[in-house]
Every structure is written in structure tokens, then in C-alpha cells.
């Protein structure tokens, strides 16, 4: 398991999450705040 701390201030998080989810067998995500638009960015990778 690896731990990454991501911030939208540095780069678009959705791109990183999509890339990591495609390679993952399982994932745990902790968030402080999430908009529906953020879910839409990663929803295809969640299937």
C-alpha cells in the first residue's frame, strides 16, 4: 500500500486518481471536501 497526499492547488487531482485507480485492485480514499463535479471526474475509474 502506498500513501499519497494530493492537493488541487498543485495539479488536477482527478487525473492522478484516475491513473492510480486503473492500476489498483483496491483503494481507500479519505477526503476533506468533495463536490459532485469531482466525483464525475473519477466515476468511470470507480466501476
Description:
The chain is mainly alpha-helical. It has one domain. Helix content is 47%, strand content 0%. The longest helix has 11 residues. The mean pLDDT is 80.
Question: What's the rounded overall pLDDT mean?
Answer: 80
Order of helices and strands: HH
Count the strands? 0
How many structural domains can be distinguished in the coordinates?
1
What separation lies between the terminal Cα atoms? Answer: 20 Å
Shape: globular
Features:
47 residues, single chain, mainly alpha, 0% strand
Nutshell version of this structure?
This protein is mainly α and 47 residues long.
Q: What is the secondary structure topology, with strand pairs?
A:
Blueprint (H helix, E strand, L loop, with lengths): L12 H11 L12 H11 L1
Helix pairs in contact: 1-2
Amino acid at each position: 500500500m502506498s500513501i499519497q497526499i494530493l492537493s488541487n492547488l498543485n495539479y488536477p487531482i482527478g487525473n492522478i486518481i484516475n491513473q492510480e485507480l486503473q492500476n489498483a485492485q483496491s483503494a481507500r480514499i479519505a477526503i476533506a471536501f468533495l463536490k459532485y463535479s469531482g466525483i464525475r471526474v473519477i466515476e468511470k475509474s470507480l466501476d
